[in-house]
Amino acid sequence: TFFVSVFLLLMQFLWKYIDDLVGKGLEWNVILELMFYASSTFIPMALPLAILLSSIMTFGNLGEHYELVALKSAGISLPRIMRPLIILSVIISIMAFWFSNYVMPVANLKMRSLLYDVRHIRPEINIKEGIFYNGIEGYSIRISKKDRNTKMLYDIKIYDQTKRQGNLNVTVADSGFMKLSEDEKFLMMNLYNGQRYDEVSEEGVRNDEKKFPFRRDKFIEQSILFELEGVGLQRTDEDLFKDHYEMLNVQQLTVTIDSLNQSIEKKQTDFGVTMYKSNYFKREDPRIKSDTVKNTYNLDSLLLSLNKADRAKVYSLAADFIRGSKSYVTTIREDIKSRREWVSRHDVEWHRKFTLSFACLVLFFIGAPLGAIIRKGGIGMPVVVSIIFFIVYYLLSIMGEKFSREGVIPVYYGMWLSSVVLFPFGVFLTYKAATDSAIMNTDTYVIIFKKLKYFLKKKPN
Prior knowledge:
Structural class: alpha+beta
Low-confidence stretches: none
Strand content: 5-15%
Strand order of the largest sheet: 1-2-3-4-5
Shape: flat
Largest sheet: 5 strands, antiparallel
Number of strands: 5
Mean pLDDT: 79
Helix content: 55-70%
């Protein structure tokens, strides 16, 4: 079940990035390397699903073949039957945390850097009929027909836009063919029976005096060499990505979060000092002491004593100060908001190290008693029930993570939301399975419904 879970998550990854992988001539070892690193990053997510599915299937098989009944008749309770698997689940949870903390940051670094390099590879040259091809920097190429057998191209138009002044240079040919150089860094195109049009630039001439001269060259055969940039896999230095929060362990995240919070506090302190000195007391003179001031004036009276022109200047100056202060406050507010969002992302990643491992225990306490209750093994009902519970767990996790990143709720509430919601449900199922409760028996609900119906129809005396 674990490898099935990893495979499903890997297929979702490939489907997401299929457009970045297809048509770039990647070697098979590069694709395998990317899939290996991607699979490693999915292990903490696949473990809870695998434990949920395997526990339901295991206890479902035991219940379906009446082995649980035999064990209980021998005096062995369900918690005692579950005890070895509980210990195993705890060990798996500890290993999952160790993997998330030490291995997954490295796998994320390798996978993200390789994916970045793959996404920046220029696609293979594929010029389609009747469509302008702009895959070569500074050129636009169009062909009307392509012979699949001889590889000949017909009715070729090449627009040279390397000078970024429009279509000043145009080459037209009846036919031709193209091929890549041995190192695949250049595209060589041989053209036959064509013409080249070059518009001559008239610098220093007014528009009404321009004559727009051009030069036309006819040729029987001509070769054009195009330089291809970004062809082939060029590995980027991994140090450029190592400070991202997905590439850090718990200790590094703790240090980074502390540093980011200190930078926010410093930003807020500097903001207050700047506002106080630059906006509220612009004319404050440090040489003047409060005990040397002999006369005080009422600001309103002082303002009214000015003539109309001076008063207008004061109002205009005050309005400029207000607009400047408002703009400064808005800038600082957005800056602090973005910094806090960045801190939230680090906090989310810090809590994720623990929540994914704890989810293994939570989903085990849901899967094991649920399998004992439904008493169905195999890949039928257990798979359906597992998918339903995992979807609930996944939706709660995504919702909590989103709210945490946006600052709607504290990060620890959002990241532990799924565990807090599902853990009591697991305890309830364990209790019901241990007491042989028939919560999955339809007759039980039929009896309850009949009693409720009788109660509603009963008339009060």
